[in-house]
Design a protein that fits this description.
By secondary structure, the chain is an alpha/beta fold. The protein folds into three domains: 2-113, Rossmann fold (3-Layer(aba) Sandwich); 136-364, tm_1862 like domain (pyruvate-formate lyase- activating enzyme, Alpha-Beta Horseshoe); 370-424, OB fold (Dihydrolipoamide Acetyltransferase, E2P) (Beta Barrel). 35% of the residues lie in helices and 21% in strands. The protein contains 13 helices and 17 strands. The chain has helices at 2-15, 39-58, 69-74, 76-81, 97-107, 154-158, 166-178, 204-212, 232-240, 257-262, 269-282, 301-314, 341-364, and strands at residues 29-34, 63-68, 87-89, 111-113, 136-140, 142-143, 162-163, 183-187, 219-223, 247-249, 287-294, 318-323, 370-378, 384-389, 394-398, 407-415, 420-424. The strands form five sheets. It has a five-stranded mixed barrel. A four-stranded parallel beta sheet has the order 1-2-3-4, with helices on both faces. A three-stranded parallel beta sheet has the order 5-8-9, covered by helices on one side. β11 (287-294), α12 and β12 (318-323) form a beta-alpha-beta unit. The radius of gyration is 22 Å and the shape is globular.
Protein backbone atom coordinates (compact mmCIF):
# COMPACT_ATOMS: atom_id res chain seq x y z
CA UNK A 1 0.00 0.00 0.00
CA UNK A 2 2.84 2.37 0.80
CA UNK A 3 4.50 1.48 -2.51
CA UNK A 4 1.34 2.54 -4.32
CA UNK A 5 0.96 5.75 -2.29
CA UNK A 6 4.59 6.54 -3.15
CA UNK A 7 3.83 5.96 -6.84
CA UNK A 8 0.96 8.41 -6.54
CA UNK A 9 3.13 11.08 -4.92
CA UNK A 10 5.88 10.60 -7.50
CA UNK A 11 3.35 11.05 -10.31
CA UNK A 12 1.95 14.21 -8.69
CA UNK A 13 5.43 15.66 -8.28
CA UNK A 14 6.34 14.90 -11.90
CA UNK A 15 3.18 16.70 -13.01
CA UNK A 16 4.36 19.66 -10.91
CA UNK A 17 7.69 19.74 -12.77
CA UNK A 18 9.93 17.58 -10.60
CA UNK A 19 11.94 14.60 -11.77
CA UNK A 20 13.39 11.74 -9.76
CA UNK A 21 16.94 12.37 -8.49
CA UNK A 22 19.58 9.69 -8.89
CA UNK A 23 20.88 10.09 -5.31
CA UNK A 24 19.85 11.73 -2.04
CA UNK A 25 22.71 14.21 -2.35
CA UNK A 26 21.36 15.50 -5.67
CA UNK A 27 17.75 15.83 -4.50
CA UNK A 28 15.99 19.14 -3.80
CA UNK A 29 13.12 17.33 -2.07
CA UNK A 30 13.38 14.19 0.05
CA UNK A 31 10.15 12.49 1.15
CA UNK A 32 9.83 9.54 3.52
CA UNK A 33 6.63 7.52 3.17
CA UNK A 34 6.45 5.65 6.44
CA UNK A 35 4.97 2.59 8.16
CA UNK A 36 4.04 2.40 11.83
CA UNK A 37 2.61 -1.11 12.06
CA UNK A 38 5.62 -2.29 14.09
CA UNK A 39 8.00 -0.48 16.42
CA UNK A 40 11.01 -1.49 14.32
CA UNK A 41 9.57 0.26 11.25
CA UNK A 42 9.08 3.48 13.22
CA UNK A 43 12.64 3.30 14.60
CA UNK A 44 13.97 3.07 11.03
CA UNK A 45 12.21 6.33 10.17
CA UNK A 46 13.91 8.27 12.96
CA UNK A 47 17.24 6.63 12.17
CA UNK A 48 17.09 7.80 8.54
CA UNK A 49 15.90 11.27 9.58
CA UNK A 50 18.89 11.48 11.90
CA UNK A 51 21.24 10.80 9.00
CA UNK A 52 19.49 13.36 6.80
CA UNK A 53 20.22 16.07 9.37
CA UNK A 54 23.83 16.24 8.17
CA UNK A 55 22.71 16.62 4.55
CA UNK A 56 20.40 19.47 5.57
CA UNK A 57 23.31 21.26 7.27
CA UNK A 58 25.30 21.16 4.03
CA UNK A 59 22.32 22.16 1.88
CA UNK A 60 19.78 24.15 3.93
CA UNK A 61 17.47 24.63 0.91
CA UNK A 62 16.63 20.91 0.73
CA UNK A 63 13.03 20.21 1.70
CA UNK A 64 12.61 17.14 3.89
CA UNK A 65 9.11 15.72 4.36
CA UNK A 66 7.64 12.81 6.31
CA UNK A 67 4.36 11.22 5.21
CA UNK A 68 2.35 8.09 5.89
CA UNK A 69 1.53 6.29 9.10
CA UNK A 70 4.35 7.52 11.35
CA UNK A 71 3.52 11.07 10.26
CA UNK A 72 -0.16 10.45 11.04
CA UNK A 73 0.69 8.99 14.46
CA UNK A 74 3.34 11.50 15.56
CA UNK A 75 2.27 14.72 13.83
CA UNK A 76 3.81 17.85 15.38
CA UNK A 77 6.10 15.73 17.57
CA UNK A 78 8.22 14.99 14.50
CA UNK A 79 8.76 18.72 13.89
CA UNK A 80 9.72 19.23 17.54
CA UNK A 81 12.04 16.24 17.63
CA UNK A 82 13.59 16.83 14.20
CA UNK A 83 14.13 20.58 13.58
CA UNK A 84 15.49 19.88 10.09
CA UNK A 85 12.17 18.38 8.91
CA UNK A 86 10.06 20.87 6.93
CA UNK A 87 6.86 18.94 6.22
CA UNK A 88 4.70 16.32 7.96
CA UNK A 89 1.62 15.02 6.16
CA UNK A 90 -0.76 12.22 7.08
CA UNK A 91 -2.22 9.21 5.30
CA UNK A 92 -5.19 11.17 3.94
CA UNK A 93 -3.13 14.12 2.72
CA UNK A 94 -0.64 12.75 0.21
CA UNK A 95 -2.76 14.01 -2.71
CA UNK A 96 -1.67 17.53 -1.68
CA UNK A 97 2.06 16.84 -1.42
CA UNK A 98 3.04 19.09 -4.34
CA UNK A 99 1.02 21.97 -2.86
CA UNK A 100 2.61 21.48 0.56
CA UNK A 101 6.11 21.51 -0.91
CA UNK A 102 5.40 24.71 -2.84
CA UNK A 103 4.15 26.42 0.34
CA UNK A 104 7.27 25.38 2.21
CA UNK A 105 9.45 26.65 -0.64
CA UNK A 106 7.68 30.00 -0.97
CA UNK A 107 7.12 30.78 2.70
CA UNK A 108 9.99 28.83 4.26
CA UNK A 109 7.43 27.78 6.84
CA UNK A 110 7.19 24.33 8.37
CA UNK A 111 3.90 22.50 7.74
CA UNK A 112 2.08 19.72 9.59
CA UNK A 113 -1.21 18.41 8.18
CA UNK A 114 -2.56 15.13 9.51
CA UNK A 115 -6.31 15.69 9.16
CA UNK A 116 -8.52 12.77 8.13
CA UNK A 117 -10.37 13.88 4.99
CA UNK A 118 -12.21 10.61 4.17
CA UNK A 119 -12.06 11.67 0.53
CA UNK A 120 -10.46 8.85 -1.43
CA UNK A 121 -10.75 10.43 -4.85
CA UNK A 122 -7.99 12.96 -5.61
CA UNK A 123 -8.84 16.57 -6.50
CA UNK A 124 -7.57 15.81 -10.03
CA UNK A 125 -8.03 12.38 -11.57
CA UNK A 126 -4.62 10.92 -12.37
CA UNK A 127 -3.33 7.41 -12.88
CA UNK A 128 -0.23 6.76 -10.76
CA UNK A 129 2.47 5.33 -13.00
CA UNK A 130 3.75 1.90 -11.84
CA UNK A 131 7.48 2.16 -11.06
CA UNK A 132 8.35 -1.36 -9.97
CA UNK A 133 6.90 -2.95 -13.09
CA UNK A 134 5.54 -1.92 -16.47
CA UNK A 135 2.97 -4.73 -16.54
CA UNK A 136 1.77 -4.95 -12.92
CA UNK A 137 -0.17 -2.20 -11.14
CA UNK A 138 -1.81 -1.55 -7.79
CA UNK A 139 -5.29 -0.08 -7.47
CA UNK A 140 -6.65 1.16 -4.14
CA UNK A 141 -10.29 0.17 -3.66
CA UNK A 142 -10.71 1.24 -0.03
CA UNK A 143 -8.80 2.66 2.90
CA UNK A 144 -9.02 2.30 6.66
CA UNK A 145 -10.28 -0.37 9.03
CA UNK A 146 -13.20 -0.72 11.44
CA UNK A 147 -12.00 -3.85 13.24
CA UNK A 148 -9.84 -2.39 16.03
CA UNK A 149 -7.83 -5.52 16.71
CA UNK A 150 -6.28 -4.84 20.10
CA UNK A 151 -2.67 -5.05 18.85
CA UNK A 152 -3.17 -2.94 15.72
CA UNK A 153 -2.52 0.73 15.06
CA UNK A 154 -4.07 0.80 11.57
CA UNK A 155 -7.52 2.27 12.47
CA UNK A 156 -5.77 5.11 14.29
CA UNK A 157 -3.41 6.05 11.46
CA UNK A 158 -5.49 5.10 8.40
CA UNK A 159 -8.92 5.96 9.79
CA UNK A 160 -12.24 4.19 9.37
CA UNK A 161 -13.21 2.15 6.33
CA UNK A 162 -14.02 4.16 3.22
CA UNK A 163 -14.75 2.45 -0.11
CA UNK A 164 -14.19 4.04 -3.50
CA UNK A 165 -16.97 4.06 -6.07
CA UNK A 166 -16.85 0.88 -8.14
CA UNK A 167 -17.26 2.90 -11.35
CA UNK A 168 -14.10 4.87 -10.56
CA UNK A 169 -12.16 1.70 -9.73
CA UNK A 170 -13.17 0.02 -12.99
CA UNK A 171 -12.40 3.14 -15.03
CA UNK A 172 -8.91 3.34 -13.48
CA UNK A 173 -8.26 -0.33 -14.30
CA UNK A 174 -9.45 0.17 -17.89
CA UNK A 175 -6.94 2.99 -18.32
CA UNK A 176 -4.16 0.86 -16.85
CA UNK A 177 -5.00 -1.98 -19.24
CA UNK A 178 -4.82 0.49 -22.12
CA UNK A 179 -1.28 1.31 -20.93
CA UNK A 180 -0.28 -2.36 -21.25
CA UNK A 181 -0.80 -3.52 -17.67
CA UNK A 182 -1.48 -7.26 -17.48
CA UNK A 183 -1.82 -7.86 -13.71
CA UNK A 184 -3.86 -5.77 -11.27
CA UNK A 185 -3.55 -5.99 -7.48
CA UNK A 186 -6.46 -4.51 -5.52
CA UNK A 187 -5.44 -2.83 -2.27
CA UNK A 188 -7.13 -2.09 1.04
CA UNK A 189 -6.56 -2.61 4.74
CA UNK A 190 -9.50 -5.03 4.59
CA UNK A 191 -10.46 -5.52 0.95
CA UNK A 192 -13.18 -8.09 1.49
CA UNK A 193 -15.27 -5.65 3.51
CA UNK A 194 -15.36 -3.43 0.43
CA UNK A 195 -18.70 -1.68 -0.03
CA UNK A 196 -20.02 -2.40 3.45
CA UNK A 197 -19.72 1.30 4.35
CA UNK A 198 -21.88 2.35 1.38
CA UNK A 199 -25.50 1.39 0.75
CA UNK A 200 -25.13 2.23 -2.93
CA UNK A 201 -22.24 -0.12 -3.68
CA UNK A 202 -21.73 -3.68 -4.85
CA UNK A 203 -20.02 -6.41 -2.81
CA UNK A 204 -16.33 -7.19 -3.08
CA UNK A 205 -17.05 -10.46 -4.88
CA UNK A 206 -19.24 -8.64 -7.42
CA UNK A 207 -16.47 -6.08 -7.94
CA UNK A 208 -14.10 -8.95 -8.75
CA UNK A 209 -16.61 -10.36 -11.25
CA UNK A 210 -16.91 -7.05 -13.08
CA UNK A 211 -13.15 -6.53 -13.20
CA UNK A 212 -12.68 -10.11 -14.43
CA UNK A 213 -14.65 -9.25 -17.59
CA UNK A 214 -12.37 -6.37 -18.65
CA UNK A 215 -10.57 -7.05 -21.97
CA UNK A 216 -6.80 -7.36 -21.69
CA UNK A 217 -6.65 -8.34 -18.01
CA UNK A 218 -4.57 -11.48 -17.51
CA UNK A 219 -4.28 -11.66 -13.72
CA UNK A 220 -6.19 -10.30 -10.74
CA UNK A 221 -5.06 -10.36 -7.10
CA UNK A 222 -5.99 -8.59 -3.86
CA UNK A 223 -4.55 -7.85 -0.41
CA UNK A 224 -5.30 -7.93 2.49
CA UNK A 225 -8.24 -10.00 3.77
CA UNK A 226 -9.75 -10.36 7.21
CA UNK A 227 -10.97 -13.94 7.83
CA UNK A 228 -14.27 -12.81 9.36
CA UNK A 229 -15.26 -11.10 6.09
CA UNK A 230 -14.50 -14.00 3.73
CA UNK A 231 -17.96 -14.64 2.27
CA UNK A 232 -19.28 -17.72 0.49
CA UNK A 233 -19.67 -15.55 -2.61
CA UNK A 234 -15.98 -14.61 -2.48
CA UNK A 235 -14.93 -18.23 -1.96
CA UNK A 236 -16.96 -19.27 -5.03
CA UNK A 237 -15.21 -16.58 -7.07
CA UNK A 238 -11.91 -18.46 -6.73
CA UNK A 239 -13.45 -21.38 -8.59
CA UNK A 240 -15.25 -19.32 -11.21
CA UNK A 241 -13.17 -16.28 -12.26
CA UNK A 242 -10.52 -16.96 -14.89
CA UNK A 243 -8.23 -14.04 -14.05
CA UNK A 244 -8.42 -14.40 -10.25
CA UNK A 245 -5.12 -15.99 -9.26
CA UNK A 246 -5.09 -19.06 -7.03
CA UNK A 247 -3.54 -17.26 -4.07
CA UNK A 248 -4.88 -15.63 -0.91
CA UNK A 249 -3.21 -13.97 2.05
CA UNK A 250 -5.36 -14.75 5.08
CA UNK A 251 -3.86 -13.58 8.41
CA UNK A 252 -4.65 -15.93 11.31
CA UNK A 253 -2.41 -14.17 13.89
CA UNK A 254 -2.82 -16.95 16.50
CA UNK A 255 -4.04 -20.53 16.69
CA UNK A 256 -5.43 -20.07 20.21
CA UNK A 257 -9.10 -19.15 20.66
CA UNK A 258 -8.26 -17.44 23.96
CA UNK A 259 -5.67 -15.20 22.31
CA UNK A 260 -7.87 -14.57 19.27
CA UNK A 261 -10.57 -13.28 21.62
CA UNK A 262 -8.08 -11.05 23.42
CA UNK A 263 -6.95 -9.78 20.01
CA UNK A 264 -10.60 -8.96 19.11
CA UNK A 265 -10.28 -10.90 15.87
CA UNK A 266 -14.00 -11.85 15.83
CA UNK A 267 -13.48 -15.44 14.63
CA UNK A 268 -12.49 -18.71 16.24
CA UNK A 269 -9.90 -21.23 15.18
CA UNK A 270 -12.64 -23.53 13.86
CA UNK A 271 -14.25 -20.64 11.91
CA UNK A 272 -10.92 -19.96 10.26
CA UNK A 273 -10.22 -23.61 9.43
CA UNK A 274 -13.67 -24.04 7.88
CA UNK A 275 -12.94 -21.16 5.49
CA UNK A 276 -9.57 -22.66 4.57
CA UNK A 277 -11.35 -25.97 3.85
CA UNK A 278 -13.95 -24.21 1.69
CA UNK A 279 -11.28 -22.35 -0.30
CA UNK A 280 -9.40 -25.57 -0.99
CA UNK A 281 -12.60 -27.32 -1.98
CA UNK A 282 -13.37 -24.81 -4.77
CA UNK A 283 -9.67 -24.33 -5.71
CA UNK A 284 -7.55 -27.33 -4.65
CA UNK A 285 -4.36 -25.73 -5.96
CA UNK A 286 -4.81 -22.44 -4.09
CA UNK A 287 -1.71 -21.12 -2.31
CA UNK A 288 -2.31 -19.63 1.13
CA UNK A 289 -0.07 -17.35 3.17
CA UNK A 290 -0.66 -15.86 6.59
CA UNK A 291 0.51 -13.46 9.30
CA UNK A 292 1.36 -14.59 12.83
CA UNK A 293 2.09 -12.69 16.04
CA UNK A 294 4.05 -14.44 18.77
CA UNK A 295 4.31 -13.26 22.35
CA UNK A 296 0.98 -11.41 22.53
CA UNK A 297 0.37 -10.24 26.13
CA UNK A 298 -0.76 -13.20 28.24
CA UNK A 299 0.24 -15.81 25.63
CA UNK A 300 1.13 -19.01 27.50
CA UNK A 301 3.15 -21.94 26.21
CA UNK A 302 -0.16 -23.78 25.72
CA UNK A 303 -1.50 -20.90 23.60
CA UNK A 304 1.68 -20.85 21.56
CA UNK A 305 1.46 -24.59 20.91
CA UNK A 306 -1.99 -23.98 19.43
CA UNK A 307 -0.33 -21.66 16.94
CA UNK A 308 2.25 -24.31 16.09
CA UNK A 309 -0.53 -26.84 15.61
CA UNK A 310 -2.45 -24.63 13.16
CA UNK A 311 0.75 -24.28 11.11
CA UNK A 312 0.93 -28.06 10.91
CA UNK A 313 -2.77 -28.43 10.13
CA UNK A 314 -3.06 -25.77 7.39
CA UNK A 315 0.43 -26.16 5.90
CA UNK A 316 0.72 -22.62 4.56
CA UNK A 317 2.76 -21.96 1.47
CA UNK A 318 4.52 -19.13 3.28
CA UNK A 319 4.13 -17.14 6.49
CA UNK A 320 5.02 -13.71 7.83
CA UNK A 321 5.71 -13.99 11.55
CA UNK A 322 6.48 -11.19 13.99
CA UNK A 323 7.13 -10.62 17.67
CA UNK A 324 4.41 -8.60 19.39
CA UNK A 325 5.31 -4.98 20.12
CA UNK A 326 3.22 -2.32 21.87
CA UNK A 327 1.74 0.18 19.39
CA UNK A 328 0.04 3.04 21.26
CA UNK A 329 -2.87 3.79 21.26
CA UNK A 330 -3.87 0.18 20.46
CA UNK A 331 -5.68 -1.40 23.40
CA UNK A 332 -3.20 -4.23 24.03
CA UNK A 333 -0.68 -1.64 25.24
CA UNK A 334 -2.62 -1.66 28.52
CA UNK A 335 -2.77 -5.46 28.84
CA UNK A 336 -0.85 -7.08 31.67
CA UNK A 337 1.30 -10.25 31.61
CA UNK A 338 3.62 -9.00 28.88
CA UNK A 339 5.78 -11.80 27.46
CA UNK A 340 9.52 -11.39 28.01
CA UNK A 341 11.59 -10.43 24.97
CA UNK A 342 13.74 -13.57 25.13
CA UNK A 343 10.59 -15.74 25.16
CA UNK A 344 9.18 -13.91 22.13
CA UNK A 345 12.46 -14.38 20.30
CA UNK A 346 12.54 -18.11 21.09
CA UNK A 347 8.93 -18.60 19.99
CA UNK A 348 9.52 -16.76 16.74
CA UNK A 349 12.48 -19.02 16.01
CA UNK A 350 10.32 -22.11 16.67
CA UNK A 351 7.62 -20.86 14.30
CA UNK A 352 10.11 -20.19 11.51
CA UNK A 353 11.83 -23.54 12.07
CA UNK A 354 8.51 -25.37 11.81
CA UNK A 355 7.42 -23.54 8.66
CA UNK A 356 10.72 -23.74 6.73
CA UNK A 357 10.47 -27.43 5.71
CA UNK A 358 6.79 -27.01 4.79
CA UNK A 359 7.61 -24.17 2.39
CA UNK A 360 10.62 -26.08 1.06
CA UNK A 361 8.53 -29.20 0.40
CA UNK A 362 5.87 -27.20 -1.43
CA UNK A 363 8.51 -25.49 -3.56
CA UNK A 364 10.24 -28.84 -4.29
CA UNK A 365 6.93 -30.24 -5.54
CA UNK A 366 7.13 -27.78 -8.44
CA UNK A 367 10.48 -29.03 -9.71
CA UNK A 368 10.10 -30.42 -13.22
CA UNK A 369 6.69 -28.81 -13.73
CA UNK A 370 5.84 -26.14 -16.30
CA UNK A 371 4.19 -23.04 -14.84
CA UNK A 372 2.99 -19.69 -16.14
CA UNK A 373 5.16 -16.75 -15.06
CA UNK A 374 4.69 -13.03 -15.62
CA UNK A 375 8.26 -11.71 -16.01
CA UNK A 376 7.96 -8.16 -14.70
CA UNK A 377 11.35 -7.12 -13.26
CA UNK A 378 15.07 -7.73 -13.43
CA UNK A 379 16.21 -9.84 -10.50
CA UNK A 380 18.91 -8.72 -8.08
CA UNK A 381 21.26 -10.69 -10.28
CA UNK A 382 21.58 -8.55 -13.36
CA UNK A 383 21.58 -11.46 -15.80
CA UNK A 384 18.16 -12.74 -14.76
CA UNK A 385 14.52 -11.78 -15.12
CA UNK A 386 12.14 -12.27 -12.24
CA UNK A 387 8.42 -12.83 -12.04
CA UNK A 388 5.71 -14.70 -10.18
CA UNK A 389 3.58 -17.73 -10.80
CA UNK A 390 -0.18 -17.41 -10.46
CA UNK A 391 0.23 -18.86 -6.95
CA UNK A 392 2.60 -15.97 -6.11
CA UNK A 393 5.93 -17.81 -6.05
CA UNK A 394 8.98 -15.90 -7.25
CA UNK A 395 10.69 -17.44 -10.30
CA UNK A 396 14.03 -16.34 -11.77
CA UNK A 397 15.04 -17.16 -15.35
CA UNK A 398 17.94 -16.25 -17.63
CA UNK A 399 17.40 -12.79 -19.09
CA UNK A 400 16.47 -12.92 -22.77
CA UNK A 401 15.71 -9.99 -25.07
CA UNK A 402 12.04 -9.20 -25.43
CA UNK A 403 10.79 -11.29 -22.48
CA UNK A 404 10.42 -8.49 -19.91
CA UNK A 405 6.71 -7.89 -19.42
CA UNK A 406 5.68 -11.17 -21.02
CA UNK A 407 3.62 -14.11 -19.78
CA UNK A 408 5.76 -17.17 -20.46
CA UNK A 409 5.81 -20.89 -19.73
CA UNK A 410 8.71 -21.82 -17.47
CA UNK A 411 10.00 -25.26 -16.51
CA UNK A 412 11.10 -25.25 -12.87
CA UNK A 413 14.64 -26.58 -12.54
CA UNK A 414 15.44 -25.87 -8.90
CA UNK A 415 13.52 -24.96 -5.76
CA UNK A 416 15.27 -22.67 -3.28
CA UNK A 417 14.18 -21.53 0.18
CA UNK A 418 12.39 -18.39 -1.02
CA UNK A 419 12.28 -18.65 -4.82
CA UNK A 420 12.40 -20.94 -7.84
CA UNK A 421 14.79 -21.16 -10.78
CA UNK A 422 13.63 -22.19 -14.20
CA UNK A 423 14.03 -21.94 -17.95
CA UNK A 424 11.62 -20.53 -20.48
CA UNK A 425 10.07 -23.20 -22.68
CA UNK A 426 7.61 -21.00 -24.60
Amino acid sequence: MNVHDSEYMATLLEEAGYREASTLKKADVILLNTCAVRQKAEEKVYSLLGRLKFLKKKRPDIIIGVGGCVAQKEGERILKRMPHVDLVFGTHQFYHVAEFIEKVRQNRARICCVDFSYQLEPPRRIIPLPRESKVRAYVTIMQGCNNFCTYCIVPYVRGREVSRRSEDIIEEIKRLLDMGIKEVILLGQNVNSYGQDRSDEISFAELLRRINKLPGLKRLRFITSHPKDISKELIRAFGELETLCEYIHLPVQSGSDRILKMMNRKYTRSDYLRKIESLRKVRPDIAISTDLIVGFPGETEADFKETLSILKEVEYDTIFAFKYSDRPPAKAVTFKDKVREEVKKERLERVLALQAPITERKNKALEGKVVEVLLDTYSKRGNQLSGRTRCHRVVNVAAENGLLGQLVKVKIKEALAHSLRGEVVS
